[in-house]
Design a protein that fits this description.
Blueprint lengths: L10 H12 L2 H11 L2 H12 L10 H13 L3 H29 L1 H7 L2 H14 L1 H9 L7 H9 L4 H37 L4 H29 L12
Helix pairs in contact: 1-2, 2-11, 3-4, 3-5, 4-5, 4-10, 5-6, 5-9, 5-10, 6-9, 7-9, 8-10
Length: about 240
């Protein structure tokens, strides 16, 4: 204790302790695992979140960034680091998705973009170019992101303008979310603690199961599409 001031307790640590005393030890272990994900975890989630692999909850990177900045938001440096990890992961996933659209063309669009969205997405990208990508990258769900990334690649949007527009939008988005986590994170944790503390383990396990199922389904779909893709090489004609 310095100058008679007592240290302020971490609200997420209090939540983990209450869940631990209220139920089985696995509850607190699961919550501690969530809090220990840090930059590496949000980097990995952001890659998947910007790829063709479906996640069960749109905006999973946003939610994880808010949770982690609420826990680690005592300093601006830690929040900036988490936002940077989300940004870098999203850039990797977004570039891979753009590349898949560029290589696969219309076939990839038809495989991964729902029919009711395909015409509108391609029309927006054709008429507005990188601005359509930036808009989809900065707006929250239910605005879809992956269809715009694929369409930008399939419609030959140049790589450098694409990366600049997409990167500026994602940097703005994650910077704003990190600020919200620092400013309102403790209030969010208190609401969670008062309303959902008893369901923490169930919610996390269900979500983790859905994420795993979504990743496995996406990998299966991608491999199936690659296996069914006709070979670009034509067989040599037999001599008469």
């Amino acid at each position: 204790m310095i100058l008679g001031l007592t240290p302020r307790p971490n609200p997420l640590l209090l939540l983990a302790q209450r869940v631990h005393h209220a139920g089985s030890p696995s509850h607190s272990h699961l919550l501690r695992w969530l809090m220990s994900l840090g930059g590496l975890g949000i980097f990995a989630v952001a890659i998947v979140d910007s790829s063709v692999i479906p996640l069960p909850l749109p905006g999973s990177t946003d939610l994880l960034l808010l949770l982690l900045t609420a826990h680690r938001g005592t300093t601006v440096v830690s929040a900036v680091w988490l936002a940077a990890c989300a940004f870098l992961g999203s850039m990797v996933g977004g570039y891979l998705t753009w590349s898949a659209g560029r290589k696969g063309g219309e076939v990839t669009l038809e495989r991964y973009v729902p029919r009711h969205l395909l015409g509108r997405v391609t029309g927006w990208v054709e008429h507005h170019g990188v601005w359509s990508v930036a808009l989809a990258a900065i707006l929250p769900p239910p605005i879809p992101l992956t269809p715009f990334l694929l369409a930008a690649g399939a419609l030959k949007v140049p790589r450098t303008p694409f990366l600049i527009a997409y990167g500026a939008a994602r940097m703005t988005r994650y910077g704003l979310l990190a600020w919200l986590g620092i400013t309102y994170g403790r209030h969010f944790v208190r609401v969670w603690e008062n309303t959902l503390a008893g369901w923490t383990s169930t919610i996390l396990w269900v979500y983790a199961s859905l994420v795993a199922a979504g990743i496995l389904y996406g990998i299966w779909k991608f491999r199936r599409g690659s296996a069914n893709r006709p070979s670009s090489k034509q067989p040599a004609s037999e001599p008469a």
